[in-house]
From TrEMBL:
A GO cellular component annotation in the UniProt record: cytoplasm
Alphabetized UniProt keyword annotations: Cytoplasm
Domain of life per record: Eukaryota
Organism: Aphis gossypii
The protein, known as: Uncharacterized protein
GO molecular function, one term: glutathione transferase activity
Family matches, as InterPro entries: Glutathione-S-Trfase_C-like, Glutathione-S-Trfase_C_sf, Glutathione_S-Trfase, Glutathione_S-Trfase_N, GST_N_Theta, GST_Theta, Thioredoxin-like_sf
Any one GO biological process: glutathione metabolic process
Cellular compartment(s): Cytoplasm
Principal subcellular localization: cytoplasm
Pfam families in the record: GST_N (PF02798)
Length: 185
């Protein structure tokens, strides 16, 4: 049986989330690192696989999928993974979906923008940090982190209930990436 091929770079938070999920859920895969800092996502070979020139990407016996949340949902339907990752129960699944949809414009957006402005772009461009912009982004991110703590995690062990799900992996990958920069002041 051909293995699932997973194209990734662990610099990417969605790639890290998928990688962690595959490992924890015992999903067999062949990993292919795409070095983002070297621009490997812009090669003609990779563009033929993903015209969006981004990771993550999977190739499952010729079926190519290029968005992390779609990949997670596909894997839970096509591989034997524990139900708690993405429950079959409609209500529980809707709760996981609710966070996954919310995180795109909140956890993902706010944490990633902060990290890009505070760390990545200054390093890549050799220019100083725009402290005013970083301060604005930090305020927005802290509001999001407060919502995670006081709404999503209110009276629950995990974001969507009392069992870990794929929403928790996505949440932690976004938060962990920036937390060392928030608290290192």
């Amino acid at each position: 049986m051909a293995k699932l091929i997973f194209y990734y770079d662990l610099l990417s938070q969605p790639c890290r989330a998928l990688y962690m999920f595959f490992k924890k859920a015992n999903v067999p895969f062949e990993g292919k690192v795409v070095d983002l800092l070297r621009g490997e996502q812009f090669t003609p070979e990779f563009e033929a696989l993903n015209p969006f020139k981004k990771v993550p990407v999977i190739n499952d016996k010729g079926f190519v999928l290029t968005e992390s949340i779609a990949i997670l949902r596909y894997i839970t339907r096509t591989h034997n993974v524990a139900d708690h990752w993405y429950p079959k129960d409609s209500v529980k699944q809707a709760q996981v979906d609710e966070y996954l949809e919310w995180q795109h414009t909140n956890t993902r957006s706010d944490c990633a923008l902060y990290f890009l402005h505070k760390v990545l772009w200054p390093v890549m461009n050799g220019k100083p940090v725009n402290e005013q912009k970083v301060a604005q982004l930090e305020k927005k991110m802290i509001i999001t982190l407060d919502l995670i703590e006081n709404v999503w995690l209110k009276n629950k062990k995990f974001l969507c209930g009392n069992e870990i799900s794929i929403s928790d992996i996505f949440g932690i990958c976004e938060i962990d990436h920036t937390s060392k920069y928030i608290f290192s002041k």
